[in-house]
Design a protein that fits this description.
Layout: H1 9-29, H2 39-53, E1 57-58, E2 78-81, E3 84-86, E4 100-109, E5 112-121, H3 127-145, H4 153-166, E6 170-171, E7 177-179, E8 186-190, E9 207-210, E10 213-215, E11 221-223, E12 230-232, E13 238-240, E14 243-247, E15 252-254
Antiparallel strand pairs: 1-4, 2-4, 3-12, 4-5, 6-10, 7-8, 9-14, 10-13, 11-12, 14-15
Length: 263
């Protein structure tokens, strides 16, 4: 598939820098993600950290706008609370005990993108919320663990789907992982469901995200009138985790791994 870019060693270095910065943003914001803060305040803090401290660019801000009535994304991060699947727009929503919230960060440094997200518990989670969030992270890690040259993307998607559905949850199909580099979204599409022995074969130098979105109820979603926010159709909880991964000669490297994170 010629449209999938293979990163040279020099380009991989650029991706490592951007990935490390994206992970550092999540590390920075973690102490602030608690009851009583608004998602707009989380956005402000992340924006100031990315621009002021990292001397980088928040990729979501001004992204998109497709000429069909959807405006460019208005904020610097995505905050998806409870039944919001992805692309939640930070605003006056105040986080409260029992919520779950995904914070999705993409940083551009020297033209390269690093993309990562994690789902936080606010206070004590419900039993269902805890199991959903932990299952989603396990699904991401399962997919990442399979990455090496010669593996097909369909095998990774199938393994994630099998794990998720085995826990009684469902995988969102309308949104998926993606190639990443100088562009925010490149080929290939990385589906979190699929059939074994299908899809492209991974090659050394490919770079993409694995970011399963998992619903506690049915997999169906809907897009809100703002043109960005995606929610579960049945209003059940949704969780997501994401890392940017590089295919190496011997396996993989997680470019957005946080300093304190155990994979």
């Amino acid at each position: 598939m010629s449209s999938v870019t293979i990163k040279t060693p020099a380009e991989q270095h650029g991706m490592r820098v951007a990935g490390r910065l994206a992970g550092e943003v999540l590390g920075y914001i973690t102490p602030f993600v608690k009851a009583g803060i608004t998602t707009a305040e989380l956005d402000r803090l992340c924006h100031e950290y990315i621009v002021g401290v990292q001397q980088a660019v928040p990729a979501p801000l001004g992204y998109g706008g497709d000429g069909y009535g959807r405006p460019p994304f208005p904020k610097s991060i995505c905050t998806s609370v409870n039944h919001v699947v992805c692309h939640g727009i930070p605003g006056d929503k105040t986080l409260k005990d029992g919520d779950i919230v995904n914070v999705d960060v993409t940083v551009i440094k020297d033209g390269w993108h690093g993309d990562t997200s994690m789902t936080f518990f606010i206070g004590a989670p419900s039993v269902l919320g805890k199991r959903l969030v932990e299952t989603t992270r396990r699904a991401m890690l399962l997919g990442i663990g399979m990455v090496k040259p010669g593996v097909r993307l369909g095998d990774i998607g199938h393994a994630i789907q099998k794990l998720v559905e085995g826990e009684g949850f469902s995988v969102v199909r309308e949104y998926c992982g993606h190639g990443i580099g100088r562009e925010f979204h490149e080929d290939p599409q990385v589906l979190h469901y699929g059939e074994p022995n299908t899809g492209i074969k991974l090659e050394t130098g490919m770079c993409f995200t694995i970011e399963p979105m998992v619903n506690a109820g049915k997999r169906t979603v809907k897009l809100l009138p703002d043109g960005w926010t995606v929610v579960t159709k049945d209003h059940t909880l949704s969780a997501q985790w994401e890392h940017t991964v590089l295919v190496t000669a011997t396996g993989h490297e997680v470019l957005t791994k946080r300093a304190d994170e155990v994979l």
